[in-house]
Amino acid sequence: MTEQPEVCLTCSDQAVPARVLRLLGDGLAEVETGCGTEEVSVALVDARPGDVVLVHAKEAIAVTGAHCDDQ
């Protein structure tokens, strides 16, 4: 069996990584996508500034990289 790329089953779009810049309240966050900043929902994940999240359809669906405090 060949490995299939991870895509949304309903629309075939891929989730994109984005770094959380700041939490805005009401389950929203400002993120950096590499193409600029966007406002996305983080209601489904436990994200904080500095985390890398996977975003699909303006919804963070997973935290893939955690914030690293400089100590």
What would your notes on this structure say?
With 71 residues, the protein is an all-beta fold. It has a single domain (16-65), classed as SH3 type barrels (Roll), CATH 2.30.30.140. 0% of the residues lie in helices and 45% in strands. The chain contains no helices and five strands. The chain has a five-stranded antiparallel beta sheet with strand order 3-2-1-4-5, with no helix packed on it. Strand 2 and strand 3 (37-41) form a beta hairpin. It is globular and about 35 Å long. It starts with 15 loop residues before the first strand and ends in a 6-residue tail after the last strand. The model has no long low-confidence stretch (mean pLDDT 85).
Q: What is the number of strand segments?
A: 5
**Major β-sheet annotation:** 5 strands, antiparallel
Helix content: under 10%
The percentage of residues in β strands lies in over 45%
User: Uncertain regions: pLDDT < 50 for 5+ in a row?
Assistant: none
Using the coordinates above, name the CATH class: Mainly Beta
In CATH, the topology is named SH3 type barrels
Strand order of the largest sheet: 3-2-1-4-5
Shape estimate = globular
Distance between the termini: 46 Å
Order of helices and strands: EEEEE
